[in-house]
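Quick note —
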Amino acid sequence: MKIGIIGGGAAGFFAAIHAAGRGSEVILFEKSPKLLSKVKVSGGGRCNVTHRPMEISKLAKHYPRGERFLKRVFSKFKSEDTISWFESRGVALKTEADGRVFPVSDSSQSIIDALLGEAHKLKVSIRKSCGVQDIIPEERHFLLDTDEGFTQVDKLIVATGGHPKITGYDFLKNLNNNILDPIPSLFTFNTPKESLRKLMGLSVADGLVKIEGTKLNYRGPILVTHWGISGPAVLKLSAFGAQWLKEHNYKANALINWNAAFGEEEFGSHIRNYIQAHPSRKVESNPLFDIPSRLWGHFCTRATIEPGQLFGSLSKKQINKLVQNLFCYNLKVEGKTTFKEEFVTAGGIALNEVNPETMESKYHPNLYFAGEVLDIDGITGGFNFQAAWSTGFLAGIASSR
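Predicted structure written out below.
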């Protein structure tokens, strides 16, 4: 049996390896001259392979789109299986404090070498710089119109990843799939008119970012950049708020609590207690709540606290303004910045057209989908790769039966 796989990324390679491992002849088509390019750059070149193993129901909650579908997928192949697969092939892995799993080498090349090595061992035929322009379904086969001519395969796995524009799915037009419009999922918030940008480079470890007028919020590290705010809290919030933000043209008010361990009343009472204990200390040179000194100085300026002013001389109005900056800092968002190398999209093949047990199309026998070409996207932390490994595994196994 001859199986064609379109896409030389994580899902495509994992599908190819598991199909070839069951004796099928596998041909993998990649339109670019590079293989596993997203694996190469992910995690700053370290490759966040997966996330610390957890219950399937908890794991699935890290996906703004695809949670219910992935519960069934992960029942067949989950984080523990990913870790076991790579470690059994000589890739030592480590779990960091936040749950992210990386190769001990801190190099994505370790992951790439394992995948390429396994594919080579199983005699997967890899055709680089060979895109598929059209898929023609025949009675018992698929005819692929590729950059190198026509190729006929018995079964087909599509693992092309997400596309920023709907036209990226044109090669599927003969299959009449329901394709949901792609929209960016993980991105930073641009704040071109905000003075906070002058503090680029500083970060807090445990903030909370909310989008005003919605229930959307996320807690975690926040980073100030030269274009606005980023960090895990912002990126994860952008994933869950992807549709809302698109509908509002990426314009919103972000409300920030710079230390999520404190509520509004706690900020106020802590400051008042500090005033009683240390009335003669200078406000600007004594940051509280683990706030970086430059950010604390920014808050003091916004609260009209004078340079050299003492805690004991703070007025009620100044204290309230300081609390407001700490607990509910209002930031005007106007636009986004998407990481081109690691872009993640919501949208793609509608999940109600795919069998979550096998990744097979419900309308085209012997056609399978894997990875981000599906309407699945996860937040940062290794979740997108885990979805790729799991769906690739199922597609590879099922197609080779």
